[in-house]
Each structure stands twice: as C-alpha cells, then as structure tokens.
Predict the structure.
Amino acid sequence: MTGRSRDTKAIPRAGLLIFTALILSTLPGAFTGQTIPAEKQDVPVLAEIYNVRSYTHPNYTRIVLDIGVLREYVWNDTRSPSEITVDVQNTVLNPIVPETVPLSGSGYIRGIRIAQKNPTTVRLSIEADLDRVKRYQVFNLFDPFRIVIDIFPKEAPAGPSLTTPPPAGKTPKPAQPARGGYSLARQLGLGVRTVVLDPGHGGSDPGCLIPNGPMEKDLTLDLALKLKAILEAETDLAVVLTRETDIHVPLENRTVVANQRKADLFISIHVNAFKLKSRQGIETFFLNFNPDPAVNELAAKENATTTKTMGEMESIIKRIVQNSRIIESRELAQKIQANLVSYLGRRYTNVKNLGAKGGPFWTLLGSEMPSILVEVAHLSNPEEGARLQNPAFRQSAARGIFEGIKAYIESLGKG
C-alpha cells in the first residue's frame, strides 16, 4: 500500500491516483449490489490531522501529514494553478494546525496550505512550480499513520541554512538545583519558549461527569483556554493546545503534537472523580510508577481509551523506566502543585493538597520534554463539583497553574 513516483512529463492534466485503505471485501454489500439501509449504515469516524511538517533537504522537499489513524487519501496535480493536492477522507483538521506551513530553502515550492475542504475531507495544497519539478511521490508510513509527499526538483536548490540563531533573551542567571540536584537541563542552561496545553478528553470521550452536570472534557477545555490567555497576555511564550474545540485526540497522539512542535513543557489538564464522594483535593502527576491504589485507579480511568495491547507491555515499561525527563517533570509537577494549592487556598476554604507524585499515564508517555498531568479538583465531590461549575473558580485555577509555570521557569534561571 505505497504510493508511486510521478514523472511530471507524464502527468495528465486531470491525473488521479487513489490509495485504498483496508480491503473493500470486508464491507457489507461491497460486491453484491446490496443496498444498506441508511439507519444501518455506520456514521464515519473522523480522524484528526493534528500536524503538518516540512523539510527542505539538498535534493528534495518532504511534507508530512500526521494523522495517527489509517485513512484513505487521493492526490492530484494541475497546471493551472500549478499545484499538487492531497485530499484525506474522513478527517477533520485540528484547530492548532495553521492554514499555511512555513517552508524555507525551496525555490520550486511557493507555499503550502491546508484547510477543511468539506465536513469530512481535509485538503493539502502544495503550490509547486511543476516546470521545475522532476518528479514527486506520495506514500504512507505507519506507527503512527502519516502521509508523506516527497518532491524532487530538476536542479538541487542552494537554499539557506535551516538553523537560525535564537532570539536575544534576558540577562542570564544560574539555574537553581532541583530536588534531585542539577539535572542535565539545568547544567546546560536550557530554558522554555513553547508550552503545549492538553485539555483532557474531548469528542466521543467525555471524561468524568455527574448527573445533570458538566462533563470533564468541557471543563478542561475552558481551563486550558483561560490558561492560554493568561500565558499569552503576561509572557512571551508560544502556547499551543492539543485541541481548541470539542474533538477527539487519541491519548497516544497528544505528546506527538508536543514533540512535533518542539515544545519545552507539556501540561495535561484534568478534573478528578472517585466512587468515594468525600474524596477531594488537588494532585499533580509526572510519569513514573506508583504503588498507591488510588493513583492506579485514576490511571486506569485516564488510560481507558488507549488502543495499545498486552503484547506491548514490555516496551511500555521500558519507556517509563528509561524516561530521562523524570527529574524536570517532577520539579514542574511540584511547582505547579504548590502554587495551584496556594493560590486557590487564599480564595477558597478547605483546599486539600494531595501532593505531586508519579503515575503511569498514557498522555505523558512518549514526550520529549518535561510533562505533567494536573487534576484540578474532584467533580465527584459535592463541594468541589460546585466550584468547578463556577467560571470564577476555573479562572483562579488557571491563574494558579500559571504561577506554577512561572515559578518553574524562574528556577531554571530564565524568569
């Protein structure tokens, strides 16, 4: 199931190639002429295109669409306008993906655009000078599923350097030691420029909920948007959300978004729920194992939507054990936990500190930066559930998390 190279000399004006994902013979009525009643037809599940990447190499340009879920796609090229298009079926475009994709060092490609063509199809448009293109190929890769477009020019471009110097910063200060000492990040004087906020759940996954009350997915999105607004207003950090609307983002893909954006911090925002209604408080997690039964119960609920299997257990355990970011993730979790509890405690009574601790959460696995998951309060607790439904409380919670992020950056000597 791979694409084929295209020689532009042989491209017909309306040339069309179709990639078919999965075998059609498994579909009911595919070759029988049978008509499936509308009420029995499955509504297609829309996968999410959550990132577009581009690289200019000395001999070709590569453009990658990150989807994570197997999907059919169609590609075509035209001379007027001179462009290559790729239509991905049964997909929606994540709001964090910009409409235009930056590209440097490629004179034969003028621009890259991506947009929602219709409610179930996303179109990638590559404005290419086909007279200067020798050939191109469109194919897919797996784990996670992604579509790759390689474009080869007739002459290799000179192209500028792909690296640019970092912007001038504030007067440098030495980093403070974390509780585990001076981590490699602190020894190297690394700072923070990009933060990815991950509103928990979304789409078909509501998270926890209460009768006649809000759903976790709506509360976490509102919290993340409030926090984003504070960060953008009071810092020069770049802030990206894994979702800005009520759409489903697979657990395994959330840190992929952060990795692709080369984020420096990943913060997943959740609200808690337990069978024991009296349980309340705030807790923050970093990726690690934990013998606490309450943590294990919470991890089981938060990880319920993963598609991974038992056969992958050994590799998953190794990835957690070998996680080199535990020191910085723990430090970030402790700063956010302390500041969130302190800020809310000055405005509300009975704010319980459940601490910062390790936990085996899928949404943190695979990140290439310090990553934490914060459980802001318990929706299942009557007192905290009522507070969560109040926008003023969510604004205060967002401010508390912001204070924790600021304290963490200051500990790096970069605040």
Q: What stands out?
A: The chain has eight helices and 18 strands.
